[in-house]
Amino acid sequence: MPGHLETLLAFDRQYQRDQQQSPAFLHRRDRRYALDRGSNQAPDMGHWLAQLQALNETATVSYPPELRFWQRFASAFVSLGALLGIVTMSGLLFYDGGQQINITVILGVILLQLVLALITAIQGLAGWQPWAPLVHSLQHRLEKRQPSPALMPLFGPMMARTAQAAGLAFGLTGLVTLLGSVVLQDLAFGWSTTLETSAEAWHSIVSWIAAPWSGWLPVATPSLELVSDTRFFRLADTTPGTDSARWGAWWPFVAMAWLTWTILPRLLLLGLATLDLRRKSRRALRHHPGYPALLWRMETPAVETGSDTTDSGQLPADASTDTVPVPDTPLIVCWAGASPQGVLTETSAPPLRAGGSQSLQADRRTLADLASRRGPGDRDLLVVTRAWEPPTAELEDFLEEAAMQFPDITLTLLPLATTPTRRPADQQLAQWLRFADRAGQGIRVAATDNGEANHVQH
Fold first, then answer.
1. What are the tens digits of pLDDT across the range 274-290?
2. Could you tell me the pTM of the whole model?
3. Strands ordered across the beta sheet of 332-335
């Protein structure tokens, strides 16, 4: 899966689909994946979901609609932030020729943006969701669906990331507007305040603001003389004797203050919000109700012994103790290391192997080899097993896949005793007859008895 949120939503959809499957089927499927993956490797949810899609157990899923909504919402929010950046900076730089652009107002906007960025970061880290009802209502109106329960705990971090991105767009477009205005207009900056503030006090304030770049960019650090020369009062004329070029000398300071205290904090906090969202999405996956169950299925062997009922030593009530004769067929598969001794003739082709230590891919190659070996008149597939070993879920999966690939073929199980020419004990045959009866697919059970066999089909 391409991302952490996509993986979480895909896992949640798979979990909802798995509610319709039997626990035994889920156990066989996930245990088989764990065995093929290797016991020393931690489960990878992205790889597990991709494997299910590769096996056609799940339909190919398009981009999650919940994330499509958030993409559109975030794009609209960022676009609005960019537009507000242009409008705000244009308003701050408005100059009618009769009054200077007040640096105090620009610094106030920078401080406001810094405070909003910090509040947004705290809201995201704490998981507060003050805007959740409004966004959920918008999603229900536009998407005609309720928000995914899997995303509900992540709404706070997702909203924080979106807001930080919008704030970053605000800062960038504001800076571009400032630089464009510097090139295209003759801007006159100054500072003014109603408070009784001396030039020395104001110079100490702007020097503190310029501290991050004062050592390597002195041109963007206002001097005391510049501060003294560019103070103005709203109803007074421009100070006599002040050089006109002095009023425009503030622009490097304004640009660096905007870059340092508006854009950079938003950029850093956007990265922090992204990391926090990734961390919380991984935690949401671990806390998902389907995650512990999946890990249990992967770590716990799926073995059906057939001996957990009171009639484990008996045949099914509707079954006979008789079995079918061993079919004469070149299509023979030895399961989990079973020996075909006593079954093959001199003209028989070498048997194919499946199960046991073989991987799922190797079992599929065996079925492909059967397809290439099969002749026009071959209608039987013989699977040789050990009678004293209980049938496993992996064998049932192999037979199901064989039945799907060869719908016109008859599947026959041949449980062999330690002496291949002797008939296995009735208790051993009982588990195989129950297994064939439960698995369906028209599976038959054959048994040797000194070269003779009886007939009954299951």
1. 999 999 988 888 888 88
2. 0.62
3. 352-354, 332-335, 380-386, 410-416, 444-445
